[in-house]
């Protein structure tokens, strides 16, 4: 990574698509950790290590259950689970902590959903690939191959993305020489916010509302008149369509080709209508679809509950957080940005009776 690497580069879609649509998440994790693709033996070895680490300690499961019963959301449950994931081993070896974090996030997300639905969580199946086991623990059924390919393409597409807020958070935390699990716990908190990872659930709500309104263009104008933002549009860095949106739109199209192509088509039609209205109403800002828009469309097809969209983002992004944490520790220096004070000068402590 370089310090000027956070911009869009033409052709990126091709590279992202090549990896996202073909690799397993194990291969992508290996690539992030080792800077090369694994041999088949190395891939199998990482798959087995992840599988062996997927089981959550009872204390972490209890925290997930308590969160679900108290009405907390899936991200609250992930934060609690990763916070308690160290109790059955001694944390501190960064590479082992990284693997542990990457392994337990899907187990915690699936367990949250089972408790939420008043069902018992399912134990991980160590024979399965990471992505397939996530879907199985969630639904209780062996997932269809097209669902596994869809989720794996998604996880690969979102695994890492420069210095986004949650990755920066993870790096800042481990730069204090805290441990990698603490970095991941903080990153989960950063990802939770609707301006970062919390958008895809609302994207689905939006698509349903638009469908019910029967007037996409009027619906967009009404939202903008009310001062609202369209979820799944805009990006802090990109001034073009997010290259991941292209990859996920193709993945969603392939997924829906077998049934319900109508839903996919209505989403693409809305994308085009909304983009035109945004161009007209916000000519100074180029607002296009970001990764969250087609995430929502793809996840809905795969059958991931919308309450778990952000947690599923964490299932992928934990690979990037941990790879960044390991890279930070390789040549560590504490992350300590400076702030410029712009308040009043010359103020003094005032005693109570003079205030
Ligand atoms: N819908 C409508 N208008 C928007 C949107 C949007 N989605 N995004 C930005 N704008 C408008 C703002 O209202 C503002 O208009 P104004 O100057 O007339 O007041 C202008 O564009 C610039 O807004 P900023 O807040 O400066 O844009 P910024 O680039 O900082 O924001 C962000 C990026 C937070 C992603 C924003 O586009 C947004 O809120 N999008 C919706 C939420 C979303 O989809 N989040 C997921 C992001 S992707 C990710 O984190 C993985």
From TrEMBL:
One of its GO terms (biological process) is tricarboxylic acid cycle. GO terms for molecular function: citrate synthase activity. Pfam families: Citrate_synt. The active site is at residues 235, 292. Its EC number is 2.3.3.16. GO terms for cellular component: cytosol. The keyword Methyltransferase does not apply. Belongs to the citrate synthase family. This is Citrate synthase. It comes from Salinirubellus salinus. The lineage of its organism: Archaea, Methanobacteriati, Methanobacteriota, Stenosarchaea group, Halobacteria.
């Amino acid at each position: 990574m370089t310090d000027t690497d956070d911009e869009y580069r033409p052709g990126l879609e091709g590279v992202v698509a090549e990896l996202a649509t073909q690799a397993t998440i194990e291969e992508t994790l290996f690539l992030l950790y080792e800077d090369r693709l694994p041999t088949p033996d190395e891939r199998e070895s990482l798959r087995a290590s992840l599988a062996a680490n997927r089981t959550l300690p009872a204390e972490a499961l209890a925290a997930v259950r308590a969160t679900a019963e108290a009405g907390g959301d899936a991200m609250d449950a992930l934060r609690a689970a990763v916070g308690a994931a160290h109790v059955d081993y001694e944390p501190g070896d960064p590479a082992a902590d990284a693997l542990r974090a990457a392994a337990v996030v899907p187990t915690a997300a699936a367990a949250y959903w089972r408790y939420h639905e008043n069902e018992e969580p399912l134990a991980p199946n160590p024979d399965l690939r990471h992505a397939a086991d996530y879907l199985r623990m969630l639904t209780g059924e062996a997932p269809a191959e097209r669902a596994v390919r869809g989720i794996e393409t998604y996880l690969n597409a979102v695994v890492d993305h420069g210095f986004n807020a949650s990755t920066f958070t993870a790096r800042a935390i481990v730069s204090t020489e805290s441990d990698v699990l603490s970095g991941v716990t903080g990153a989960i908190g950063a990802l939770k916010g609707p301006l970062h990872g919390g958008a895809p659930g609302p994207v689905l709500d939006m698509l349903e509302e638009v469908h019910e309104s029967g007037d996409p263009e009027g619906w967009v104008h009404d939202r903008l008149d009310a001062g609202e933002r369209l979820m799944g549009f805009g990006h802090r860095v990109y001034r073009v369509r997010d290259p991941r949106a292209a990859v996920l739109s193709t993945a969603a199209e392939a997924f829906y080709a077998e049934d319900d192509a109508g839903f996919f088509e209505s989403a693409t039609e809305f994308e085009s209508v909304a983009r035109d209205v945004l161009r007209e109403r916000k000519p100074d800002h180029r607002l296009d679809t970001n990764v969250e828009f087609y995430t929502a469309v793809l996840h809905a097809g795969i059958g991931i509950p919308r309450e778990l969209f952000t947690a599923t983002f964490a299932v992928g992004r934990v690979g990037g957080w941990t790879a960044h944490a390991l890279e930070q520790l390789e040549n560590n220096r504490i992350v300590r940005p400076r702030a410029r004070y712009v308040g009043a000068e010359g103020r003094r402590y005032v005693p109570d009776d003079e205030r």
